[in-house]
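Project standup — Tuesday

K.O.: blocked on the structure for the chain from last sprint. Re-posting the sequence here as requested.
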Amino acid sequence: MATSRAEKVTEFLTCVICQELYTDPCTLKCDHTFCRKCVSAYIQTRPDAVQSKTIPCAFCRQVTKVPDPSRPVEEWAGQIKPSIIIQGLIDTQADVVKTGSASCCSVCEKLGETTPGASWCSECQVSLCERCVKIHRASPSSHDHEICDLSGEVKVKRRRKVMCREHKDEAIKLVCKDCHKAVCQTCWVINHGKCESVVTIVSMIPTMKYHLRKNAEQLSKKVHEKQKIVQKRNKTIGRIKKKKITVENHIKTAVERAIANIKQKRKQLMNEFKDITDKQTKKLKAEEIEMQMYKQHCEFIDQALVSDCEMDLYDAYQAWESGAVELGDVRDTDTADTRRIDDIRFTPDTDNVQHILDDLQLGKIEVTYQEQGTCLPSPVRVDVIDGKMAGDEVEPDLCDITVLVVDGIQTVVVTDMNNLCVKSFYTRNNLTCHSKLPLDNSPHGITQLKENQVMVAVPASSQIVTVEVTPYLVLLSTITTIKWYFSLAVLSPSSLAAGTMECVDILDMAGHVLRSVTTHNNETLFPYPHYMCVNNKGNILVSNWEKKSVTCVTSEGDVVWRYAPTGDRALNPYGITTTPTGDILVADSNNVVRLTETGDYVTDHQDIDWYPKGLYVDRHDTLYVCGGGQTREINFM
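H.V.: unblocked you, prediction finished:
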């Protein structure tokens, strides 16, 4: 059974062109997969494909457009995206090493010896004997490699090495975060020397695992919610089917009733026609009867005259005298009562009937729909973090918040105005941990600078400090500014926006003012821009407590839109952030207001049961709210 299953897997992973296990598999538009070299060779045999600048499928003949046909034909196949799933299956099938599969030491085998392999190095992908293991561990280049014992029925997973397409002998081990591309060492030196953020893939593993787990959790929740929705929809479909049968029967009944009425009209017309013809026929038959009566009297008189019998003559005479036989005026004339039918026709009222049929309303189908508002996510509180730490002299007042993932550890970083410090909260090895960084004065706004760095505004000291999050907090640098800045938002690696009294300044990373955004149409835009963030278009969203508004401006100072409602919806805005979908969340009194990315009101999330200040939404659509002495984690379901 196992052999049969393995054969099926091998058959699935076999290229139909070369009949070998896939080598660098790539999948065409038609979803058929081939070795990349086989695709390249196949193109060479198809001049029509070269002329049309397409790649034909050797299996179904469907064509795939070449992304960049200006490149040489030999490079066309290299432009097709690799089939990661197929390659993963190939690697998985070849990755499991059992006892006996690595019977010989790979190092000794190269020296012509056949020493039994006792261990496996997952980094070098070689089996080692006991002697070579010692040498391997003693070598500076391989002392930290993971080595697994092969003495039992232990399955050992080999790490898949992905080789660079341009530099075939080099494995891809680096990631350029600026270009969002995995590269080899040579590619980094040649093409990414000016990029600021190039790290090893290994260093990203904890963070990648964290986000993948979070994504899996979110997807599981969505699957669960969708299952509920599908169950409700199935019940609705069942009700619709039952209603459908009922309505179809009603329609049939209405049609049958209309047909019955038409048949009744036909019967009336036929009866009317029969009455007219029968009446006329009877009148015409009466003259024939009268004629027969005359003939009978003529015969009676003739018989009396021939017989010459006194009594016969007397009876005939007496009948005539008594008026038994009346002789009218025998002329072919019609009176009002004896009009003859000359012709009979039926003239259908076609136009009127057609008009009636066109306007005929057998009934009306009415559909009622359930009242459904805009389907918006509802906030569900997940966790509460107490902002108080040992050494706090007063109750904390958490002002602003951001969340980082450092080496796979989610870290919540907040500013505490009352205790003059920045705090971080995280969980490591299932233990709740925290860190505190004291400052000279009360910190206010906070923004993420890099993956493990934040910038904090300390207005009373005219400072902007940069803090490294390990997730332990470490002060890296301090910038002294000419103004008191309350809010911060990073615009680019070389500039940031900072809010102060009556303006928003664009600064370089040394704290120098590049330009200021102050007025619009001779009106002061930002009397108190205490909170701000940057949206996915690079525009600055400013929450203005005094103006009770949210304003979107470009980094050049142009106003894109302003949201300043009055009446029941009048704002008392504090923290502001954006969601992964582009929506805007604004802290307002004891709730959070949701706006579209163009500044249109969507709804209020009323389930925030205390006065919120700082807001932050991560890429998994989890909302973090700080205020007073607490931070709350809220999921939208």
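K.O.: great, moving the ticket to review. The first helix runs from residue 2 to 12. The two ends are 45 Å apart (CA to CA).
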